[in-house]
Amino acid sequence: MSVVTLLEWQDHFRTEDACQKYLFQQRWPKGFVCPQCQCTSYWTGQRSDRTTPLYECAGCGHQASLTAETLFHRTKVALQVCFFSHFSGCRRQRGSALVLSRELGLRYGTAPLLHHNIQQAIKARNAHYQLGSLVELGDTYFGEVSHGEGKRGQGTNQDPMIVDVSFNSPGHPRHIFMDAVLNLKKDTVLEVLPQSANRIPRCVA
After folding, report:
1. Domain residues of the chain, as ranges?
2. Is residue 164 within 8 Å of residue 177, measured between CB atoms?
3. Which residue, of 12, 89, 99, 148, has the greatest Cβ tally within 10 A?
4. Which of 55, 87, 49 is nearest to 68 (CA)?
């Protein structure tokens, strides 16, 4: 499924039942199969401390959960809220747990967990990206100036970063990776280069 707009997302996951059906299809594309005995018959039950049903195997009694081995494992938050928080967070890729709690009306104690899960989802997705074609490596600095007007270049008190950028054949940027480093000394940069090399077939320094 490819969802690109908020309206499409809301139409597809308009109810809690729709979210549960989607997870069921992702977990058991050909129908329920017990992970213990491979039986395909089951009963459903509900725990008071969970928002999603349990699927109990009719053969061996093993209980399987929709959210097991997912970012929503053991969640006490409605799946609609979980789904939308990830949709919103992965599109925005920035913001804080406080922003999330305000947007979704969550307690601040709940929001940090969802925010952490969003970051893990983004990290897992980005791990599939590979830099290709022509790649350039460089360095830069990020962060606000902590005092005075600050300095530029290597005299700055901002955080140094190693940046890898890949370009397509017309020369437009495609993907970018940034690695935070302690400094831009030769030994530090050489430690990061093998990680960058795993992402690129060839590079231009």
Report:
1. 6-126, 134-197
2. yes
3. 89
4. 55
DSSP 8-class letter at 145:
-
Helix (H, G, I), strand (E, B) or coil at 95: coil
Burial class (CB in 10 A: 0-12, 13-18, 19+), 197: middle
Three-point CA angle 108, 96, 98, nearest 5°:
30
Q: Report the C-alpha gap between 33 and 62 in whole angstroms.
A: 11
Spatial distance between the Cα atoms of 150 and 157, rounded to a whole number of angstroms: 7
Task: Give every strand in the sheet of 63-65, ordered side by side.
Answer: 42-45, 54-57, 63-65
**What does pLDDT average to in each consecutive run of 10 residues of the chain (205 residues)?**
72 90 92 93 82 90 87 81 77 65 75 75 68 70 60 66 78 76 82 64 41
Check residue 189 and give its pLDDT.
Answer: 78
Confidence at residue 177, expressed as pLDDT on a 0 to 100 scale:
76
Structure token pair of residue 150: 């600050």
pTM value surpassing 0.90: no
Output the six-digit token pair for 189: 């940069």
Tell me how far apart the 2 most distant CA atoms of the chain are, in Å.
71
Helix (H, G, I), strand (E, B) or coil at 141: strand
**CA separation for the pair 125, 129 (Å, rounded):** 7
| Residue 112, token pair as written in the block | 């940090």
Question: What distances in angstroms separate CA 146 from CA 139, 141, 153, 161, one per listed residue?
Answer: 20, 13, 15, 17
